[in-house]
Amino acid sequence: MVAIKSLLTVALTALPYTAQATRLFYNSGTKSGWDNTTPEHQGTVEEVSNIVYKGPTAVKVTQTYDPSYSGRYHSELRRYQGYKRGDERFYGFMFRLSESWEFTPQSYNIAQFEAKRPGANCGGDDYMPSSMLWLLGNQLTSRIVSGQYRQPDCSRTITPYKNLATVSAGVWHKVIIQARWKSDSTGFYKIWFDGNKVLEKLNVATTVNDDSTFEFRIGLYANGWHDDDNPPFQGSQPFRQVWLDEAAIGTEFRDVDPDQTPS
Predict the structure, then answer these.
(1) Which pTM does this prediction carry?
(2) Do residues 179 and 195 lie in contact, with contact meaning Cβ atoms separated by under 8 Å?
(3) 114 and 81 in contact (C-beta within 8 Å)?
């Protein structure tokens, strides 16, 4: 009888997690509702109604290359509570490149998780992106980051995942990420692109070994324009445009899929 009662207690204790699964964040294509926006230099972040995936508005972000400027090129929407070590979450959003988007061998980031880690002081500052999602040519690319990356030990392991899917200009694409954020080998990292699972990495470290809070950011970060040296700008398109819609964070797949009903 004691054994049966114990089993029932364990089962009932496990039930609330499923019952309480819900969206943790949702944005239907507006600037309001995000914790912050980051249009650096000549970048813009604005609501538009002429190109949307669902509902009355989407967010359009732009960036313009300036050869006289040496700073970074963020135009992003920011949710401060992206994750902390130990979290297991889904993230979803829709994005659309301009119809005339020129694909080059340079990196254009469309999503990232970034934290300010006071006292880390690695790479010249306290900011550190962990997982990122970017375009390299017309290929979707991602990565996971693990390790210490805090003074006096600034070592870290960056594991890239290339050629995940082909991205087309002028059409809406759906991205869903699922991650168990762990600094040991019990983490996992998965990506779906337009409904197809394109990455599944199990039993891996997916974040650094501290409890910093990482933001969830989507938009356009033309990081190649800042990070590349020879040449800093490639191609013939210095003005870039990306549209974003239906962003969400949740504990179940359907919470972040705009084509399903959330829990």
Answers:
(1) 0.90
(2) no
(3) no
